[in-house]
Amino acid sequence: MNDRLLIDVYMTTHRRPDVFAASLRRLLEACAASPFDHRITVVADDIDEETLKTVAPHIGQINLLSSCQQLGMPFGYNLMLQHSDLVAGRTERACDYLCYFNDDCLIEFPGDFFDILVKTHREVLPDRQAGYVSGFYCPLHPGFESRRHRHYTVVLSDSVDGKNFMAPPATLRSVGAVTWRLADGQRRGNPGPGRRGSEVDIWQWRDSPTSLQRQGRVNLIVPGLCSHAATRPEQSTWNNVTTPEFIAERIRQGRYYRTRETEPRLTADQFYRGAGRR
C-alpha cells in the first residue's frame, strides 16, 4: 500500500507551443523533485502539430487528452474534475489534491514547489477555512492580508487568479461544475462572444451558488512561486495585455478584484521582484 500523498496535476494548452513547452518542462521538474506522487495530464484544446511534438517525448510519463476543436475553458475545467474521478475509480487510488495550471504559468522554483503548496494549505488556516492554494500572485487579486509562514509570504485572498490553483478534490467538487452560459445568455469562455475566459475563474470564487466565498473559504497565495510567461496580446488566447505597466494602470483606475483589505497590498514592484521568496 502506497501511503505517499498523491497530487493529480492538469495543464491546459491551446496552440501556443513555445509558451507551453517551457511551462511543461518546469512542471515535470517540479514533479520530479516533489516528495509526493503525481499523475500528470495535459488537456490540449484544439491540438496542433507543434504542440503534439512538444508532448510526444513525454508520452508514458504524462497522460494526453486532446480535441480537434476549440471546446473552451469550461470544458477543460469540468473535464479535469470528471477525469480525476474516473482515474481514481480505475486505479483504486484517489488523489489527495487536484492541481491546475494554465500553459502560460511558469514555475519559478521547481525544487520545493509542491512541498510549499501542501504545507501552506495544511498549516496556515484551519481545514474548514482553506480554499485554494496557488503559487501565482497577480496584483489584480491583492488579497486582504499577508502573513509570514516558514520562510515565505502567504497572501490571504477572497479571489484568486485562475492560472494556478490546488485544493483537495472535495473542495473543487463542492464549488461544482462550471455552467456553460452566463446570466446574459452568452457562452462562458472561449469560443463564446468576447472570449471571457476570466469568467471561469470568477465562477469558482464568487459566482457559483456554492462558490468559495459563499462557503466562507479563503484562498492562500504564495507570491513568486510562479510567473506569467505570456504578457503580450499575440501570446494570449484571450488577447490580454498583462505587462507590469498595464496592471499598474488598471490598479490606478481601481479596476481590480477588491473584496476586503485589512493590510496594504503587495505592490506590483514587490511581486515582480519575487516577494514570496525574500
Protein model, in words:
The protein has 278 residues and is of the alpha/beta class. The protein has one domain (6-277): Spore Coat Polysaccharide Biosynthesis Protein SpsA, Chain A, CATH 3.90.550.10. Helix content is 32%, strand content 20%. It has nine helices and eleven strands. It has helices at 17-33, 49-55, 73-91, 113-123, 169-175, 198-207, 212-215, 244-252, 268-272; strands at residues 6-13, 37-44, 63-66, 97-102, 105-107, 130-134, 145-149, 152-157, 164-167, 218-221, 226-228. It has a five-stranded mixed sheet with strand order 3-2-1-4-9, with helices on both faces. Strands 6-10-8-7 form a four-stranded mixed sheet, covered by helices on one side. Helix 1 (17-33) runs parallel beside helix 2. The termini are far apart. Mean pLDDT is 86; it is low at 271-278.
Order of helices and strands: EHEHEHEEHEEEEHHHEEHH
At the fourth level of CATH, the homologous superfamily is: Spore Coat Polysaccharide Biosynthesis Protein SpsA, Chain A
What gap, in angstroms, lies between the N and C termini? 39 Å
Q: Biggest sheet, strands in spatial order? A: 3-2-1-4-9
Q: How many helices?
A: 9
What is the CATH architecture descriptor?
Alpha-Beta Complex
Provide the residue-averaged pLDDT: 86
Helix content: 25-40%
CATH class: Alpha Beta
What is the count of distinct domains? 1
Note the overall shape.
globular
Unreliable spans are: 271-278
* Total DSSP E strands: 11
Question: Any idea of the CATH topology?
Answer: Spore Coat Polysaccharide Biosynthesis Protein SpsA, Chain A
Fraction of residues in β-strands: 15-25%
- How is the biggest beta sheet arranged? 5 strands, mixed
Structural class: alpha/beta
Supply Rg.
18 Å
